[in-house]
Structures are given as structure tokens and as C-alpha cells.
Amino acid sequence: MGSYTNKILQRLRDRRYDFLLLPQDYDGVQKDIHDLVKSWIGHDKPITVFDLAGVPPEVMDLVVGLLSRVLFEVMFWGRELPDVGRQRPLLLVFEEAHRYLPSGEGYFIQGYARRSVQRILKEGRKYGLGAVLVSQRPAELDETILSQCGTFIALRLGNGSDQSRVKSAVPDELAGLVDLLPALRTGEAVVSGEATQIPSRVRVELVEPRPSSGDPEVANLWADKNPLVADYLRAVANWRRQRAN
To answer: Each residue of 7-48: pLDDT tens digit?
Structure first.
């Protein structure tokens, strides 16, 4: 009993669970689900980003599944309403999809996100809802979800199992094009499916300024004879606050 109580206390003290344990004004009276959806997509910005980097992996499946289900239900039941559903199409982009849409069983909530996204891919287009899956490991993605994708944009892939998964998802006559995947340069991609009349090898224009996602210059940094004093105190403080600044 003591061990179980300690686990509950740990969750209550973990700031990463505040979104779940401290819903603030969302009590169904002051604010309800429609207020939440309005804050997501009822504004004048073209893009809404859900930053789930701080969500514990134990509940990632549940969070992604709930987000997907709420948006699907709103688009379904509002499909003929002004500026909702078919009157205002919505595209969901699932970044790092292999983390929460894996092949086989999930980690904690068994496949809740997978079932929600499968429904979007199978039925969503009729209600103005589409989906894009982004992953560096297509071999780990759920087969049913991958088979529902109408267009494939594949960048350089060196892993044999990833190449095989892409090859199995495209028509047989395109197998030769998939063989080019290991040799693609940065920014090059193989595109096939409904978005292009013929399968093509294309060059994607690189974004400027580049996002802060490059590799560190390891050799130069290790060779630096006068490194700065490491601020481990602030690093640990950020960890506890779950904030990077």
C-alpha cells in the first residue's frame, strides 16, 4: 500500500502531469470542450502546434488518441455547419509518428492512439479531415495506418527494413525508384501517389533560416582549450521545472 501511495504522490508532484491533474477552468460549466477546440483551431492563424515534448511516455498514447478523437468527432458532427467540418477542412500532421503509432501493441494504453488515427485515415476525408504521418522509422509504423496513406514522400533511408516497408507500400512497378532511397542527397525525395501524376525524384527547397536541429561540431568543441563553466545547477533546475529557459 505504501509503494502504491508513493507512486500517486510522485505523479501529483510531477509537473508534466499538470495538464491532466490541473484542468483549471475546464469543469464543463465555466469552460467546456467547445472552448478547448476553439482555442486549438478557432483562431486566425494557419497552423496550430501541439508541443507534446514534455508529456510522459506512459500517457503519450492516451494524449495523442484523445486529441485525434476530439477533432474527429467535432469534424464529424459539425460536417455541415458553417466554418466547421467540410466547410473548413483540417489537416493533422503527426510528427515522430512511430513513437505513438507503432506496429504491434502500444506501451501503456494499448493502441488507443493507433485506433483513433486509423479512423481518421479511413473516414476523415468525408468530413474534411486529413492526416500526414512523419517518421524516420517507417518500419515501426502500424501497417494498417501506412496502407491508408495515398501519397508517399520518402527521403534518404539507409536502413533495409525501412526501405522494405516503403517498397511494400508502393506499387510493384515503383520498386526500382525505391532502390534510390539510400543514395538520395539532403533535401531530395521520392514522391509517389495521388499528389503527383507520375512517380518522381524531386529536390525540396531547404528552409532558411535552418531550424536549430543540426548536429554539434563535436571535434571543435572537444578541442576547445577554454570551455565555459558548465551550469549544471540551472540544467537540473530546468529539469525540475520542465522548462528549458
So the answer is: 767 766 776 667 666 667 766 677 788 888 898 898 889 999
Query: Nearest-CA neighbor of 126 among 83, 88, 76?
Result: 76
Residues 27 and 29: their CA atoms lie apart, in Å, by 5
Residue type at position 232: Y
Closest CA to 67 of 108, 31, 20: 20
Longest dimension (CA), the chain: 66
Pairing state between β 129-133 and 151-154: unpaired
Output the pLDDT for position 118: 92
Q: Where are the alpha helices (DSSP H) in 14-56?
A: 18-21, 33-41
Per-residue confidence band for 74, with pLDDT thresholds at 50, 70 and 90: very high
